[in-house]
Write a structure and sequence with these properties.
2 helices
């Protein structure tokens, strides 16, 4: 079995709720870079992550109704960031 083990400059975790998202970003050394609650519309998340594009791996806890987190913006390609449930 192959495991993905590439290092990245930033790691982002997102906890999705009905009206808000909790976003947490760590750098490659495990230092907290960002911990913020934002409103749930997709544009708020995309704006927040825009400065990290191509340098971040994203892990999302979500339900089926949050499918846009993985499909909304084509600039988040598999080579630039990683969305998973």
């Amino acid at each position: 079995m192959n495991f993905y083990n590439n290092m990245h400059p930033y790691y982002c975790g997102i906890d999705l709720h009905t009206i808000s998202l909790y976003v947490f970003i760590l750098d490659k050394n495990g230092k907290k870079v960002l911990h913020k609650e934002i409103k749930a519309p997709p544009d708020k998340l995309l704006d927040l992550l825009s400065s990290y594009i191509r340098n971040v791996v994203v892990r999302v806890e979500y339900m089926h109704c949050w499918y846009w987190a993985a499909t909304k913006d084509k600039s988040f390609s598999a080579s630039e960031s990683s969305f998973s449930s």
